Amino acid sequence: MYRTHTCGELRRENLSEQVMLAGWVQKIRSLGAMTFIDLRDRYGITQLVVEEHSAPEVKEAVQHLGREYVIQVTGKVIERASKNDKMATGEIEVAVSELTLLNASQTPPFTIEDNSDGGDELRMRYRYLDLRRNPLKNAMILRHRMAQEIRTFLDSKGFLEIETPYLIKSTPEGARDFIVPSRMNPGEFYALPQSPQTFKQLLMVAGYDRYFQIVRCFRDEDLRADRQPEFTQIDCEMAFVERDDVLEVFEELAKTMFRNIKGIAFDGAFPRMSYADAMEYYGCDKPDIRFGMKINDITADVQGNGFAVFDTAEYAGAICAEGCAGYTRKQLDGLTDFVKRPQIGAKGLVYIKCETDGSYKSSVDKFYSQEDLARIAGKMQANAGDLILILSGDKKKTLTALCALRLEMGDRLSLRDNSVYAPLWVVDFPLLEWDEESGRFFAMHHPFTSPNLEDLELFSSDPGKVRANAYDFVINGVEVGGGSIRIHDSNIQKKMFDVLGFTPEEAEKQFGFLMNAFKFGAPPHGGLAFGFDRWCSLFGGSESIRDYIAFPKNNSGRDTMIDSPSPVSEQQLKELSIRVTE
């Protein structure tokens, strides 16, 4: 036995007990005749004390300890003279009578503290050390708790957890696949799944009407803070359901997670917003509704006054920042510089200050009278002391820029509180999106998303207006999950393939196994997948999912800890019938 208790377990009720602990040395403080050691494991920290009257061999062993040494101690639990109310074990300490060195440690490349002095790349290279720090430890515990809650809830609703293959067939839709060569089938390749989409639909055909899986998925795409090449989904599918049935179950799951993990209760149904309204009023399909500041279309209100920037624009939109009329010239110039950033792409910013005396001050006073500005302010429902910010240009690009500006103002005004959660469903997405470069439609979600049945006639006349029977779950401006009702009618599936430009031969080659399965009695079905890593980071208050993945990749898709990806031997390439060229 290495320990009788963990380092986070001992309390006043354990006073006078003989205990055995094991863990890592967090700190050593020598105060002359006494030496204090903070001993750490994943459960907490216990202070050890080696006193002047301690055994000589213990005092000698302490002289050779360093940070992160692994030790085992035996001793008596005593009351601390100087208590620490910030530690769960802060009322006691262990007077060491025996000390055994289990393993020495080199000096760590960064401090194993809550606020480390190590940079991102260094901590990624030594991820196993980074995982010893409390922030990452707590992230892993949160992830575990969430996974257990999810499994418990879905099991209570009759869902079966069923594994699906990792080595599958490559399909052309969606992001780029990771490709795996087959040694036994030279010149042929598997793909790693971007999701278990086709398999969960096949499970519905097989009669397993409620399926779920907490599953790894893979996408070979450029990375950023909230993207990883391998990630985890809570993947779910249900048969004999319509959209509202799916949303009802998974809204209950979300409420259960909020209640059991965060201690937050929601009354009533989550709001639902159409994709069209989300784009029109928030400039994106994942609106942050913790605060107002909706986008207003003021195109008709600002055109015709001789200001060429507005008169020639397809669209002019505005937001109203409450209480910001006192913004200085420097602050307004800073906002202008913000919207001109290449990633936002606006050419400039127009403002209207609603002064407290009832007058208006604008950067376009030359073109607009006080009456004109008052009319615009009325359209914006602006009050004295508010600041109206206006962008114009191509409608899609301007809405995107206004979305970024709205979020920036939300941050500046402290309206995006991470302790506040505002979930909603976004529904009625377009089924298809047009790609100018290739001159064809692509599925906005995937080729098996069912169209809104009311829009079926538009397939032949105006495919771009067909709405999808799809839905996204959004929390605080973050898309946490999404799904759809699937196509189970072979005639509708054929129409979908036709508008996507698949010939019958191509459709058969790529998806023949699924279409053949549908010939044997496919039930109406639909589902949803939550981004598990993203949901964990949201509950943990982080903008990056990396902290909630034990061993993540960096922005180049590399694991710097194990130095991967890396070349393989010529013998391995030969076995795979592959030659690498420059």
Account of the 3D structure:
With 582 residues, this protein is an alpha+beta fold. The strands form 5 sheets. Strands 6-9-10-22-21-20-17-11 form an 8-stranded mixed sheet, with helices on both faces. A hairpin with a 2-residue loop joins strand 1 and strand 2.
Strand order of the largest sheet: 6-9-10-22-21-20-17-11
Counting DSSP E segments of at least 2 residues, the number of strands comes to: 22
Percent of residues in helices comes to 25-40%
Shape: globular
Q: Sheet with the most strands? A: 8 strands, mixed
- Please state the average pLDDT score: 94
The low-confidence runs, each spanning 5 or more residues with pLDDT under 50, are none
Q: Which percent range describes the beta-strand content?
A: 15-25%
Number of helices: 17
Rg over CA atoms: 30 Å
- Alpha-carbon distance between the two ends: 56 Å
Structural class: alpha+beta
Search tags:
single chain; 582 residues; alpha+beta; 8-stranded mixed beta sheet; 5-stranded mixed β-barrel; 17 helices; 22 strands; globular
Topology:
Blueprint: E1 18-31, E2 34-41, E3 44-50, H1 56-62, E4 70-79, E5 92-103, H2 120-125, H3 127-130, H4 134-156, E6 160-161, E7 179-181, E8 189-191, H5 197-205, E9 210-218, E10 230-239, H6 243-262, E11 272-274, H7 275-282, E12 296-297, H8 299-302, H9 308-311, E13 315-321, H10 329-339, E14 350-354, E15 360-362, H11 370-380, E16 387-393, H12 395-412, E17 423-427, E18 432-435, E19 440-443, H13 458-461, E20 470-475, E21 478-485, H14 490-499, H15 504-518, E22 525-531, H16 532-540, H17 570-575
